[in-house]
Amino acid sequence: MAGVILCLTFMSQNVKMKARHHSMALATLWTALILFTSVIGFAQSTPPTVLHASEAAKLLPDAVFFRGQSATVQTRNSGGIHFADDMFVLVALVDNSGYSSGIQQKYQAYFITEVPLDFNGNALKPGAYGVGIVKDHFIAMDIGAHDLFTVPIVHDADLKRPSPLQLNADGDHYRLYFGRDYVTFAQSK
Predict the structure, then answer these.
(1) Cβ-contact 67, 145 below 8 angstroms
(2) Taking Cα atoms as reference points, which of 8, 143, 11, 126 lies closest to residue 66?
(3) What's the rounded Cα separation, in Å, for the pair 185 and 50?
(4) Confidence of residue 15 (pLDDT cuts 50, 70, 90)
(5) Calpha distance 53→163 (Å, rounded)
(6) Tally of CB atoms within 10 A around 163
(7) Confidence of residue 42 (pLDDT cuts 50, 70, 90)
(8) Whole-model pTM?
(9) pLDDT of residue 73
(10) CB atoms inside a 10 Å sphere around CB 42
(11) How far apart are CA 127 and CA 50, in angstroms?
Protein backbone atom coordinates (compact mmCIF):
# COMPACT_ATOMS: atom_id res chain seq x y z
CA MET A 1 0.00 0.00 0.00
CA ALA A 2 2.85 2.38 0.83
CA GLY A 3 4.30 1.67 -2.62
CA VAL A 4 1.03 2.64 -4.32
CA ILE A 5 0.81 5.88 -2.34
CA LEU A 6 4.45 6.66 -3.16
CA CYS A 7 3.82 5.92 -6.85
CA LEU A 8 0.67 8.14 -6.88
CA THR A 9 2.58 10.96 -5.15
CA PHE A 10 5.39 10.71 -7.72
CA MET A 11 2.89 10.72 -10.61
CA SER A 12 1.06 13.72 -9.12
CA GLN A 13 4.32 15.68 -8.83
CA ASN A 14 5.30 14.67 -12.37
CA VAL A 15 1.93 15.92 -13.69
CA LYS A 16 2.34 19.19 -11.77
CA MET A 17 5.86 19.67 -13.20
CA LYS A 18 4.63 19.01 -16.75
CA ALA A 19 1.74 21.45 -16.26
CA ARG A 20 4.12 24.08 -14.88
CA HIS A 21 6.55 23.49 -17.77
CA HIS A 22 3.64 23.71 -20.25
CA SER A 23 2.45 26.99 -18.65
CA MET A 24 5.94 28.49 -18.87
CA ALA A 25 6.28 27.44 -22.53
CA LEU A 26 2.88 28.94 -23.32
CA ALA A 27 3.78 32.20 -21.53
CA THR A 28 7.07 32.39 -23.45
CA LEU A 29 5.25 31.82 -26.74
CA TRP A 30 2.72 34.58 -25.96
CA THR A 31 5.50 36.99 -25.00
CA ALA A 32 7.34 36.29 -28.26
CA LEU A 33 4.15 36.75 -30.26
CA ILE A 34 3.38 40.09 -28.59
CA LEU A 35 6.93 41.35 -29.17
CA PHE A 36 6.83 40.24 -32.83
CA THR A 37 3.52 41.98 -33.53
CA SER A 38 4.67 45.17 -31.79
CA VAL A 39 7.87 45.25 -33.88
CA ILE A 40 5.86 44.67 -37.07
CA GLY A 41 3.39 47.37 -36.01
CA PHE A 42 6.21 49.80 -35.29
CA ALA A 43 7.86 49.14 -38.65
CA GLN A 44 4.58 49.70 -40.48
CA SER A 45 3.77 52.86 -38.56
CA THR A 46 7.12 54.53 -39.24
CA PRO A 47 6.22 57.58 -41.31
CA PRO A 48 7.93 58.33 -44.61
CA THR A 49 10.85 60.76 -44.44
CA VAL A 50 11.20 63.78 -46.71
CA LEU A 51 14.77 63.96 -48.05
CA HIS A 52 16.39 67.35 -48.47
CA ALA A 53 18.82 68.15 -51.28
CA SER A 54 21.94 66.94 -49.45
CA GLU A 55 20.31 63.57 -48.71
CA ALA A 56 18.74 63.12 -52.16
CA ALA A 57 22.03 64.05 -53.86
CA LYS A 58 23.65 60.92 -52.39
CA LEU A 59 21.14 58.76 -54.29
CA LEU A 60 20.90 60.64 -57.58
CA PRO A 61 23.20 60.14 -60.57
CA ASP A 62 25.22 63.04 -61.99
CA ALA A 63 23.40 62.85 -65.32
CA VAL A 64 20.14 61.28 -66.52
CA PHE A 65 18.87 60.05 -69.87
CA PHE A 66 15.75 61.65 -71.34
CA ARG A 67 14.57 61.89 -74.97
CA GLY A 68 17.77 60.65 -76.54
CA GLN A 69 20.18 62.82 -74.54
CA SER A 70 21.89 63.09 -71.19
CA ALA A 71 21.12 65.98 -68.91
CA THR A 72 23.17 67.04 -65.88
CA VAL A 73 21.30 66.84 -62.58
CA GLN A 74 21.21 69.92 -60.34
CA THR A 75 21.59 68.08 -57.03
CA ARG A 76 21.41 71.35 -55.08
CA ASN A 77 17.81 71.55 -56.36
CA SER A 78 16.62 68.07 -55.48
CA GLY A 79 14.53 66.25 -52.93
CA GLY A 80 12.92 62.95 -52.21
CA ILE A 81 10.83 60.72 -50.01
CA HIS A 82 12.08 57.60 -48.23
CA PHE A 83 9.15 55.33 -47.45
CA ALA A 84 9.00 52.90 -44.52
CA ASP A 85 9.32 49.93 -46.91
CA ASP A 86 12.71 51.32 -48.08
CA MET A 87 11.33 52.59 -51.41
CA PHE A 88 12.10 56.06 -52.75
CA VAL A 89 10.76 58.96 -54.76
CA LEU A 90 13.51 61.27 -56.05
CA VAL A 91 13.27 64.48 -58.04
CA ALA A 92 15.87 66.97 -59.26
CA LEU A 93 16.04 69.91 -61.61
CA VAL A 94 18.11 69.25 -64.73
CA ASP A 95 20.21 71.30 -67.11
CA ASN A 96 18.00 71.07 -70.19
CA SER A 97 20.03 73.49 -72.36
CA GLY A 98 20.85 70.85 -75.00
CA TYR A 99 17.20 70.11 -75.77
CA SER A 100 14.90 71.72 -78.32
CA SER A 101 12.89 74.69 -77.06
CA GLY A 102 9.70 72.58 -77.11
CA ILE A 103 11.20 70.03 -74.72
CA GLN A 104 13.02 72.67 -72.63
CA GLN A 105 9.69 74.31 -71.90
CA LYS A 106 8.21 71.11 -70.43
CA TYR A 107 11.24 69.18 -69.15
CA GLN A 108 12.47 70.96 -66.05
CA ALA A 109 13.05 68.08 -63.64
CA TYR A 110 13.77 64.37 -63.57
CA PHE A 111 11.34 62.38 -61.43
CA ILE A 112 12.07 58.81 -60.26
CA THR A 113 9.58 56.73 -58.29
CA GLU A 114 9.81 53.19 -56.96
CA VAL A 115 6.19 53.22 -55.81
CA PRO A 116 2.93 53.93 -57.63
CA LEU A 117 1.76 57.51 -57.11
CA ASP A 118 -1.47 59.42 -57.56
CA PHE A 119 -1.45 62.97 -58.92
CA ASN A 120 -4.98 64.29 -58.51
CA GLY A 121 -6.52 61.08 -59.92
CA ASN A 122 -3.72 60.42 -62.44
CA ALA A 123 -1.66 57.29 -61.83
CA LEU A 124 2.11 57.33 -62.16
CA LYS A 125 3.69 53.86 -62.12
CA PRO A 126 7.20 53.18 -60.82
CA GLY A 127 9.75 54.51 -63.30
CA ALA A 128 11.68 57.56 -64.46
CA TYR A 129 9.94 60.60 -65.92
CA GLY A 130 10.46 64.13 -67.11
CA VAL A 131 8.27 66.70 -65.34
CA GLY A 132 7.74 70.44 -65.33
CA ILE A 133 5.27 73.29 -65.11
CA VAL A 134 3.90 74.93 -68.23
CA LYS A 135 1.70 77.97 -67.62
CA ASP A 136 -0.67 76.80 -64.88
CA HIS A 137 -0.28 73.02 -65.27
CA PHE A 138 2.14 70.36 -64.06
CA ILE A 139 3.05 67.96 -66.85
CA ALA A 140 4.45 64.42 -66.58
CA MET A 141 6.18 62.80 -69.56
CA ASP A 142 7.60 59.34 -70.17
CA ILE A 143 11.29 58.88 -70.94
CA GLY A 144 10.62 59.55 -74.64
CA ALA A 145 9.05 62.97 -73.88
CA HIS A 146 5.49 61.79 -74.59
CA ASP A 147 2.92 63.58 -72.43
CA LEU A 148 1.28 61.28 -69.86
CA PHE A 149 -0.96 63.74 -68.02
CA THR A 150 -1.32 67.32 -66.87
CA VAL A 151 -2.61 68.53 -63.52
CA PRO A 152 -3.53 72.09 -62.50
CA ILE A 153 -0.97 73.67 -60.17
CA VAL A 154 -1.59 75.70 -57.05
CA HIS A 155 0.21 78.99 -56.34
CA ASP A 156 1.33 79.34 -52.71
CA ALA A 157 1.75 83.06 -52.01
CA ASP A 158 2.32 82.30 -48.29
CA LEU A 159 5.38 80.11 -48.84
CA LYS A 160 8.07 81.75 -46.69
CA ARG A 161 11.23 80.72 -48.54
CA PRO A 162 10.62 79.52 -52.07
CA SER A 163 13.42 77.73 -53.86
CA PRO A 164 13.65 76.48 -57.44
CA LEU A 165 12.55 72.97 -56.31
CA GLN A 166 11.46 71.57 -53.00
CA LEU A 167 9.38 68.72 -51.66
CA ASN A 168 7.24 69.10 -48.54
CA ALA A 169 4.97 66.72 -46.62
CA ASP A 170 1.32 67.71 -46.30
CA GLY A 171 -0.34 65.05 -44.12
CA ASP A 172 -0.36 61.84 -46.17
CA HIS A 173 0.24 63.86 -49.36
CA TYR A 174 3.31 65.65 -50.68
CA ARG A 175 3.78 69.00 -52.37
CA LEU A 176 6.29 69.25 -55.19
CA TYR A 177 7.19 72.94 -55.47
CA PHE A 178 8.69 74.74 -58.45
CA GLY A 179 9.23 78.15 -56.83
CA ARG A 180 5.84 79.05 -55.32
CA ASP A 181 3.83 76.76 -57.62
CA TYR A 182 3.15 73.21 -56.54
CA VAL A 183 1.37 70.00 -57.39
CA THR A 184 0.10 67.54 -54.79
CA PHE A 185 0.61 63.78 -54.96
CA ALA A 186 0.33 60.74 -52.71
CA GLN A 187 1.45 57.15 -52.67
CA SER A 188 -1.27 54.99 -54.27
CA LYS A 189 -2.97 52.56 -51.94
Answers:
(1) yes
(2) 143
(3) 13
(4) low
(5) 11
(6) 15
(7) very low
(8) 0.76
(9) 98
(10) 10
(11) 19
